[in-house]
Amino acid sequence: MKRLAAAALAASLLATGCATRAASRPPGTVFTGEVWTWDENESTVTLRDGMEQVRVKVTPDQIRGLRLHQVATLRGEPAPPMEITRYITPAIPARPVPRGPVDQAVVDGIVTAADPRGRLSIHSQRAPLHVWAAPGAEQRFRPGAKVRVEIAVQPVDMVPLSAGTPAPVDPAASPTGPSGQPGDYSVVTGRVMGVARNGTLVVESPTGPVQIWVPDRTKYKVEQPVQVRTFVATTAP
Q1: Which residues contact residue 218 at a Cβ distance below 8 angstroms, ignoring those fewer than 6 apart?
Q2: Sorting pLDDT into bands at 50, 70 and 90, what band is 10?
Q3: If phi over 0 gives left and psi between -120 and 50 gives alpha, with beta otherwise, what is residue 65?
Q4: What is the mean pLDDT of residues 80-103?
């Protein structure tokens, strides 16, 4: 989590500086860059072009169909830097403390890709899912396999550890569930990187962003820290 906090702080400082340079651009300017985050509630998209990062206010129709890390060209006006709460500093280890109710969902889908390093891509009627799995996932989940994905999301507060307290264990993925049932279980704690109108959340993780679905997207905002638990198991053909 120290790494995640350091990245959040660096990104916020970079965004502040770059937004200052972008502020001189008039409304209706064309912006091109890698899609870094977006927020459909505020109709903003953050683009990265090399070392420059800019937050752009766009029309809602331009957000529909965006994909994380795609290179996109958008027309809009610079948005002011988003106020980000600093939960921890890079030098202070912290642990996630859950708060509020857990959002739970069960989604049926079909595996479209499985990475040996432990990444699963799943097509579902709710939204495309990208979740963390244990190494060797390609041996357990073949493309075309039907799966059931259990999702639990909960906001967390990052609380600094007192002196002498052991650092929390890094998030992990396992080829079995909490009760030993077959299926891949993972726990990820990170910032929300994107919120889509269809309920999709993009959350940072040690293996790259995960993408999940929640019943109520209005509870979440970009940069908010959350804990995501997923359990993926094959179902009968």
Answers
A1: 41
A2: very low
A3: left
A4: 64
DSSP of the chain? -HHHHHHHHHHHHHHHHHHHHHTTSPTTEEEEEEEEEEETTTTEEEEEETTEEEEEEE-HHHHTT--TT-EEEEEEEEPPPPP------TTS-EEEEE-SPPEEEEEEEEEEEEETTTEEEEEESS--EEEE--TTHHHH--TT-EEEEEEEEEEEEEEEPPTTPPPPPPP-EEEE-TTS-EEEEEEEEEEEEEE-TTSEEEE--TTS-EEEE-S-GGG--TT-EEEEEEEEEE---
Instruction: State if pTM tops 0.70.
Output: no
Pairing state between β 182-195 and 225-234: antiparallel
Closest CA to 168 of 176, 179, 156: 156
Six token digits for residue 231: 């359990």
Is residue 190 within 8 Å of 226, Cβ to Cβ? yes
- Model pLDDT, residue 51: 62
